[in-house]
Amino acid sequence: MLDQNKISKDTMWEATVTCNPEYDGKFFYAIKTTGIFCRPSCKSKTPKYKNVSYFFDAANAQKAGYRPCKRCRPDLKIKKYDPLESIIEDTKRIIENNYRKNIHLIDIASDVGVSPFYLNRLFKDRTGYTPRMFLEKARIEQAKELLLTTTLNSTEVGYQVGYISISSFYNAFKRSTGLTPSQFQANYVETTTE
Questions:
Q1: Which among 27, 79, 129, 194 is least surrounded, fewest beta carbons within 10 Å?
Q2: How many CA atoms lie within 13 A of 98 on its CB side?
Q3: CA distance linking residue 179 with residue 184, whole number of Å
Q4: Which residue of the set 38, 42, 69, 72 is catalytic?
């Protein structure tokens, strides 16, 4: 546990106001008017200085009668908590488990509890892909696996991984690999027989 004398109250206040994640795990702040305690990085509304108390561990904040913030989850035994990470992970899991189906952004967004616009933007910011691009990536990875490990032809593989239109499958495959499915299989055979 951190010694209270090592961090000044001014430093803790500055970290609270600026939502500084560097101080997460080093102290917690509690708001007298709401009865809630938070991590310094919490993006909740900035409290008034006179209403803030500081604690050096979550247990003491709870003993003092404060309840953990639902946004920053200071009660979890992890140093940093990113509530948006669960949205990203849930979205990936939904896509990876349902890539064969005709899934839509609106349905995924509903499942993870955000708007389609917000999910699209957040997912792209965090992964570099939109959910649609991630779906295509998952489908193409599975298609490559099927092309190399089964006797299915390209058309069958396209349908197997969720494409309704074979031309869409061919275009997506070529966009991702630079090769047609047949060329991909041929290249693999050539490299394994050399």
A1: 194
A2: 16
A3: 6
A4: 38
Q: Which two tokens stand for residue 123?
A: 């997912």
Q: How far is CA 56 from CA 52, 61, 77, 131, 150, in A?
A: 13, 8, 14, 40, 58
Cα(90)–Cα(96) distance, rounded to whole angstroms? 10
Q: What is the CATH architecture assignment of 133-193?
A: Orthogonal Bundle (1.10)
pTM metric for this prediction: 0.62
Query: Distance (Å, rounded) from C-alpha 88 to C-alpha 114?
Result: 11
Give the other-Cβ count within 10 Å of 51's Cβ. 12
Find out whether 26 and 54 touch, Cβ atoms under 8 Å.
no
Q: 146 in helix, strand or coil?
A: helix
Q: What is the pLDDT of residues 1-54, one digit of tens each?
A: 344 457 888 999 999 999 888 888 889 999 999 999 999 988 888 889 999 999
Are the beta carbons of 135 and 99 closer than 8 angstroms? yes
Residue 139 DSSP symbol: H
Pick the CATH number of 4-68 from 3.30.470.20, 3.40.190.10, 3.40.10.10, 3.20.20.10: 3.40.10.10
